Amino acid sequence: MTDTYVGAIDQGTTGTRFMVFDRDGQVAGNAYEKHEQFYPEPGWVEHDPLEIWANTKAVVTAGLADAGLEAEQVAALGITNQRETTLVWDKDTGKPVHNALVWQDRRTTDRVEELQDEDKVEWIRGKTGLEPDAYFSATKTEWILDNAEPLKLQSHRASDLHDRAESGELLMGTIDAWLIYNLTGNHITDVTNASRTMLYNVHEMAWDGDLLAEFGVPEAMLPEVRPSSDENLYGHTDPDGFLGAEIPVAGALGDQQAALFGQTCFEEGDAKNTYGTGSFYLMNTGTEAVESDHGLLTTIAFQRSGEPVRYALEGSIFATGAAIEWLEDVDLINNAAQTADLASAVDSTDGVYLVPAFTGLGAPHWDGRARGTIVGMTRGTRKEHIVRATLEAIAYQTRDVAEAMEADSGIETTTLRVDGGAVKNDFLCQLQADVIRTDIARPEVDETTALGSAYAAGLAVGYWADLDELRENWRVDREFTPEIPVEDADRMYSRWDDAVERARDWAREE
User: Fold this and answer.
1) pLDDT 10s digits, 240-259
2) Is the pLDDT of residue 411 over 90?
């Protein structure tokens, strides 16, 4: 069997996908499985890690079957994942001590406000590049260790979770680490995922002792941090395991960094926006960690073996695809494809603005207590206006971030590369070009998150020779250029800030 391919496990917020790519970066096989979302209390979001692992095995098997391949034809496996989602598990049994706390989960908002009251925001941002928020893994890990029910253990072992974590009996990780552990038996994460925990110093490239002490997270439970594309490999799959083959696991990237890599944004100033459950706008800032004065995050973009780390500025928007799903949930649409027809059935929103702050507001506002809001409705408001307002909100949130990005970096983005499920919507892509006054480039392969992790793994094992080979694979499906006058775009955007103000600081306990 001379034909070989690279596989990518894309473990996302709503489901798990496995894709097989050939040397041209084209999809040879694909499988997907949704997993259950748990909402134990308002603002809480959980996943079952065991369900995620079971689904991962199922989609890998199905994806290989879809491609008509044997496992031995996979030259390497890459992993990409919902980044800040956090779990703690028993090192020996592999069983989680609690459901994973999803990146959207807001249960630790009070803890974040304590940090703000203690004037620790700049201290944390200086080390991690992150805006202290319930979004990140630090307060999630702290909550699990404080609140999960201790396991029933043999008498000679400590039952307290803190004691067990201190002794290394419990392991902590984001979903990439959970999958690497289950695939290889090794406890490893990559630099991009480590940089999203709020426990990792992105300047010193190490777990930060002061932050570990602040959040009560013992270093013994943390994974080893490796490059995103690792020639030394994270390990191999078990030949006696579900695949029946020993495949190198050689690359991992948090989903948004994976999309940046898959869009071949390898140079300083290259930018992309991924429209998934949320939207994540990243700009490569090269080997410099650019500090933001406008509510953006400084994060690690990627690292290849033996090379310096590359940084990015990021604008994290919590609800874009989630806003479309909400329209389905309340029966305003039957499926996402309907949004374009409904939105284009009216010339405007008639002054209606929808702020999709269902789990708070991310960049550049950072308000964990903001909540979803619709303003400007009249008796003449129809569902078409609300659907259009939802799509416009996606565009406005991106403009918020684009303006902050330009102010921080001093670089004007002339073309924004886009990917994710929502970019199949031509109406939204055109609307985005109109609102942010930038050309929008949609690639032929829009599953760039999976592609990026495949590239990272493939580079590590020599499947692809260099970055130039990957650049040659990137092809534009369609470009969208601004069509409406700038005055019209500015008028549409002009009251967005007013609507955001009405959504802020809403979720207050009585």
Assistant:
1) 999 999 999 999 999 999 99
2) no
Burial of 363 (0-12, 13-18, 19+ CB in 10 A): buried
DSSP conformation letters of 260-290: HHHTT--STT-EEEEESSSEEEEEEEETS-P
- Cis bond before residue 364 (omega within 30° of 0): yes
Annotated binding-site residue numbers for glycerol: 83-84, 135, 255-256
Annotated binding site for ADP: 13, 17, 277, 321, 421, 425
218's CB contacts (< 8 A; 6+ apart) are: 162, 165, 166, 168, 212
Name the strand (E) or helix (H) holding 74. strand 74-81
Q: Which residues are annotated as a binding site for ATP?
A: 13-14, 277, 321, 421
Residue 509 pLDDT? 62
Q: In a 10 Å sphere around its CB, with 0-12 CB exposed, 13-18 middle and 19+ buried, how is residue 494 labelled?
A: exposed
Reported pTM: 0.87
Mean pLDDT along residues 295-321? 93
- Feature table: binding site: 13-14, 17, 83-84, 135, 255-256, 277, 321, 421, 425
